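User: Design a sequence. Structure:
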């Protein structure tokens, strides 16, 4: 039987990681640069801190070419994930963009069912229409009054969920080889690759890499240090040690708190129907996380 200390240590790490990462969308909003540039600097600064972690943990050891290539592909998928998510934030705000991105649990569950032959419980089947009903309450039932930008933001948020799902599936494959997997090393490789792909996107768009003020610099450094490095490492290290139901509930802190920060810091106007919708979507996401089992 697990001791209380053994149980609570990874749970506490997940709680702190989810709390930290819930501020990521706020930091994106407070950085006075374009969405792609903020995504680039998140992984650029994050790469530096992860390289320091690799040096301290002595993880710079020879890895197989195949695993390094997979990590680079992971970086490409994560670049697409960050690009669509940061754009979505500009259109629909941090709260809704983060909730839409967390709909990845439905994509992962469907892939698990079709590809990995995982069993799906009735709770998952019910969670899908429940999530869409909640989203309708959040964005408003009267679709005619929604702007074109709003629809673009919603589409980008759902695209985020797809790219994030593909990224997580490939990362899970990398983690499957426990003997060769090095947490800091592969996170560092995919972050460096991600910053390269996003940097190419910034350059090709004739966007500026310039950082206009100290508020922006502070926001971008915090994205790299706390979100891309610290929170990522804490969550990645703790997830395998916590059962699915506990992990699912804890990780709901991220989209829930992101929506709260959106209301508190950016005066997002949300009525009773909107808050009910948020609650329904979070419940649906939780059921989506826990409503499947391995064969």
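Assistant: Done.
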């Amino acid at each position: 039987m697990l001791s209380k200390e053994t149980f609570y240590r990874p749970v506490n790490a997940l709680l702190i990681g989810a709390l930290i990462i819930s501020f990521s969308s706020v930091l994106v909003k407070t950085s006075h640069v374009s969405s792609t540039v903020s995504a680039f600097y998140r992984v650029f600064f994050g790469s530096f801190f992860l390289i320091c972690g690799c040096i301290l943990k002595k993880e710079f050891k020879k890895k197989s070419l195949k695993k390094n290539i997979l990590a680079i592909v992971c970086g490409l998928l994560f670049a697409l994930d960050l690009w669509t998510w940061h754009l979505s934030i500009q259109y629909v705000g941090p709260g809704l963009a983060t909730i839409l991105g967390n709909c990845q649990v439905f994509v992962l569950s469907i892939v698990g069912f079709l590809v990995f032959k995982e069993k799906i419980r009735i709770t998952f089947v019910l969670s899908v229409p429940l999530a869409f009903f909640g989203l309708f309450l959040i964005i408003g039932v009267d679709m005619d009054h929604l702007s074109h930008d709003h629809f673009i933001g919603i589409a980008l948020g759902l695209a985020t969920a797809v790219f994030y799902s593909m990224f997580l599936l490939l990362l899970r494959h990398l983690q499957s080889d426990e003997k060769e997997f090095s947490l800091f090393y592969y996170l560092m490789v995919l972050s460096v690759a991600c910053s390269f792909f996003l940097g190419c996107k910034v350059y090709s768009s004739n966007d500026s890499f310039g950082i206009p003020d100290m508020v922006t610099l502070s926001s971008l450094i915090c994205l790299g240090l706390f979100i891309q490095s610290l929170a990522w490492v804490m969550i990645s290290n703790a997830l395998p040690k916590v059962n699915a139901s506990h992990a699912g509930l804890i990780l709901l802190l991220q989209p829930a708190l992101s929506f709260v920060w959106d209301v508190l810091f950016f005066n997002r106007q949300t009525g009773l129907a909107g808050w009910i919708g948020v609650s329904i979507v979070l419940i649906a996401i939780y059921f989506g996380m826990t409503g499947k089992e391995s064969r």
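The chain is about 80% helix and 0% strand. The CA atoms of residues 43 and 195 lie 5 Å apart.
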